[in-house]
UniProtKB/TrEMBL annotation:
Gene3D superfamilies: 3.30.1330.30. Keywords: Ribonucleoprotein, Ribosomal protein. This is 50S ribosomal protein L7ae. InterPro entries: Ribosomal_eL30-like_sf, Ribosomal_eL8/eL30/eS12/Gad45. Residues 3-89 form the Ribosomal protein eL8/eL30/eS12/Gadd45 domain. It comes from the Bacteria. GO terms for cellular component: ribosome. It holds the Pfam family Ribosomal_L7Ae.
Length: 107
């Protein structure tokens, strides 16, 4: 798990990660998002919205971790949704997610 969190922090510092509901949706629609991560403790409505949108635009989606952990690893307050906008970071993070069981949903 620590590898995923450190990769997310590195992506944030490199400017290859966006956060926030509207910004992530814009990245998904424009094709800029390579991976969307939604906090496991997000509302059911938020999970459904991103599950549907990512499915429509063929963007991988991971639901897991909690909002406090997501925010802490990128140096921000609690975050519910993040999007990786770089293919290299996407490969690194998704590879680690496949190993872990803390992520409850990966599509």
């Amino acid at each position: 798990m620590s590898k995923i969190l450190s990769h997310l922090g590195l992506a944030m510092r490199a400017g290859k990660l966006v956060t926030g509901d509207e910004i992530v949706l814009k990245a998904v629609r424009s094709g800029g998002a390579h991976l969307v991560i939604v906090a496991g403790d997000a509302s059911d409505n938020t999970k459904k919205k991103f599950r549907d949108k990512c499915h429509t635009y063929n963007v991988p989606l991971a639901i897991g971790l909690d909002r406090g952990t997501l925010g802490e690893c990128i140096g921000k307050a609690e975050r519910v949704v993040l999007a990786i906008t770089d293919p290299g970071f996407f490969r690194m993070i998704s590879k680690e997610m496949m190993i872990l069981s803390e992520v409850e949903y990966i599509e």
